[in-house]
DNA sequence: ACGCCCTTGTGAAAGCGCGCACAAAGTGGG
DNA sequence: CCCACTTTGTGCGCGCTTTCACAAGGGCGT
């Protein structure tokens, strides 16, 4: 262990901040492509759609990479955020499930351009295996363990039907996958050391429906819902 | 207007709670299909993957729908949550963008079963227009305003390339859409009264990469990252 | 009818995230 | 060389979220 921690960095980046770093990174790439050399917190915050004070506080968790009176150097900040997120190295990803969603994910350009390499696209259906998708030949699910091992896959993307998800998840974890992105509408049980993030399209719609209904209630006048009760 | 508000309900459901209600609903549907008549907060919380105290507090915001010593009636709770989320009425959804992702969304079964009806699937590409997807014929983007008006569409799903998203969004808002689910990797600008939720597949992967890297750093011993600095 | 046991519903406290507002620091012009 | 201007980095208070712990309430066996 190195004496005592020299800075409060590296250890304590708030989860909320981590979730926004990719957002800043995306905005910065946009500025970079347009040739902008430096950017103020105000401008960057505006592009990223957040409060400028929040942006500055977020960035301050990584270190002091800005220049007072000037702003942030775009390229340098891109590098620092990328490094913090671990995007300066490549990550191998396996997508399990080659249905509509799995194929859409494999075909999605946003992955390859940010340090993620799709190592394999797997499916259980023999009729789908062998099919060509986004330059990849769909492989059989039983090759999962070999793929994870050979390709050093550390992130698994589950795009299977709900019923198959937990089984696939267990096999991923058993094979050594450390993080899972789950698109199946189930809660996955995993060991302590495995990270899971979920994306549920149906849930997002339901949240929107709630707000939409509230707006409708407001237009009709309050209190009408009570009439339906009891 | 009904005298004074009888309960502190309806008005003040925390956003964090709203985001979890669909999760509980999904868990309850599972229990319902298995014929379970009642469920305790402990059991339901376990299935939904949350803390039982949090579950109880969440449900308490809707009212007192449990029975002490027994638990919650599954069917009754399903009804109450559905009503609160506004799922007892049908919502018309338009999906804009019939690429891989748009088609996957149109084909995704989870929508129709939860009170959402896909009114139309639209695309700008003449070669895609007319194609049959999930029982729907892809229509041209210029029909957007007509579709929204005729089909009473209140939720728009944007599955277009990033460059087209803001334009499509503006047209949706102009046509009267009140909520937008955005899959394009851009920050959308909308008027005050419009709700936007975003799903960015690339961002989720980047967050996982961060945690994965942290785990790797831990294994190699702390402090190695500092050697790369300056 | 009574008392035991189970589970809900909720105060209270701790934790976290957000945004204001300002001091610190660096730039450029005169 | 100094001063005015710009922008960062952050201390602080506020409100939301989570969690604990327990009193209140209801069923069930005897």
Would you write up a description of this structure?
Two copies of one chain form a homodimer. With 230 residues, the first copy, chain A, is α/β, with parallel strands linked by helices. The first copy, chain A, folds into two domains: 15-85, Arc Repressor Mutant, subunit A (Orthogonal Bundle), CATH 1.10.10.10; 91-199, NAD(P)-binding Rossmann-like Domain (Rossmann fold). Chain A has helices at 15-33, 41-48, 52-60, 74-85, 100-107, 144-150, 162-175, 201-220, and strands at residues 38-39, 66-67, 71-73, 91-96, 116-123, 132-133, 136-137, 139-140, 153-158, 179-182, 195-198. The longest helix of chain A has 20 residues, at 201-220. Chain A is globular. The first copy, chain A, binds a DNA duplex (30 and 30 nucleotides) through α1, α3 and β2. Chains A, B: Pfam families: CoA_binding, Put_DNA-bind_N. Chains A, B: InterPro entries: CoA-bd, NAD(P)-bd_dom_sf, Rex_actinobacterial-type, Rex_DNA-bd_C_dom, Tscrpt_rep_Rex, WH-like_DNA-bd_sf, WH_DNA-bd_sf. Chains A, B: NAD(+) binds at residues 97-102.
